[in-house]
Amino acid sequence: MLDFGWQVSTTDASDAGRVSGAMYDWMTKALRGVVVRRGVLTTRDISVPIEHVSSIEDGLVSLSITSEELEGLEDYRVHRYVSPDTGEEAGPGGDQAVAYEGPAPSAMEGGDPTNPWTVSLTPFAEAEESRLVEGSVGITQGQDVVSEDGRLLGQVTHLVYDGDRLTGVIVRPPEVFGAGKIVGVDRIATLALDQLTLSLGAEAFEDLPEAPAS
Fold first, then answer.
1. pTM recorded for the entire structure
2. Considering 39, 71, 103, which residue would you say is the last residue of a domain?
């Protein structure tokens, strides 16, 4: 039904980006939206609700909006910088949230801040968050997959469907050149921004079926 890397078109552009993620109602496993990656050297991931998707064909997702309207939608991810002590967000005077790329604001010990966004001598930690369609969860290409005891098992490479219903993902372990393992949605315990946690250990993961070679 849908997979990462598929071409995205708008009403005025045949190639407006590529699919980098998908959002689902986790109760029904129905598709609630797609994540569209724009750009090549400098990229941007955009959260697109399902109401803007006019059709999904093999290799192509067609949107019912223009490229300009696509650009006006929210980023799938935003970067914020938050004080680990107070929860205060870095911004002008400390009273305005800022979403921007770049190194986290910090201050030289006993000296002036190293950039104008720093509002205290406590370095700010980067906090990245998703802008999901309400009531949905997101799965993205390259998302880390860990076992129930926190061991890294691999990364998500593909989505698996039965008709229109999401049934699982394909996970490729590090340094493995094969297609990877098929992980059913019933094995997914929790979904976070860049991490998918399974309800099984590393040994049980090795016993999962191999994905067919594409």
1. 0.79
2. 71
